[in-house]
Amino acid sequence: MVIIFLVVLFFLILFLIRVYNGLIRNRELVKNSKGQIEANMESRWDALKSIIDGVKDYKSYEAENIVKIVKERQVISNNVSVKDLEKDEENFSKAFGGLMALAESYPDLKASTLYQDSIEKIDKYETNLKNARMVFNDTVTKYNRSILIFPNSIIASALGFKEYDYFEGSSDKKDIPSWK
Q1: Fewer beta carbons within 10 angstroms: which end of the chain, N or C?
Q2: How far apart are alpha carbons 165 and 139 in whole angstroms?
């Protein structure tokens, strides 16, 4: 009887270790994929800042607003939430939109190699960011599923594992332009 109890206890401990390690593995994958998003966002801002250095010569309302948005921007850290990253995305869209309007007003800015190179870099980081968000949401789905299924849910809640939020599409990106 004692032997049967010890064998069952041994397999129960192995099961708990397997579940715990799986939860840790999935959580670390989520953190890694969020780090990829953060790195691409930082690089994209760096590319925008190089254009803004050239914009400072243009004393206009748009240029001042763009510089102001960049100065108000929060620094992204490892502990930043998805909501904070989405807010950073909104700030970037405002700054980039203002920059595009400014470039339309000043053809010599738009024609400069600094501007064109930086726009290409921003486009590259934008594509990387889109892909990183998809990977993040897929990773979060896997992680959240792993902490919600039974019996993992019991172990996960006992050990304090929490669900992660997903990146949502912004309303301006969801709207498809109308040709009417």
Answers
A1: C
A2: 11
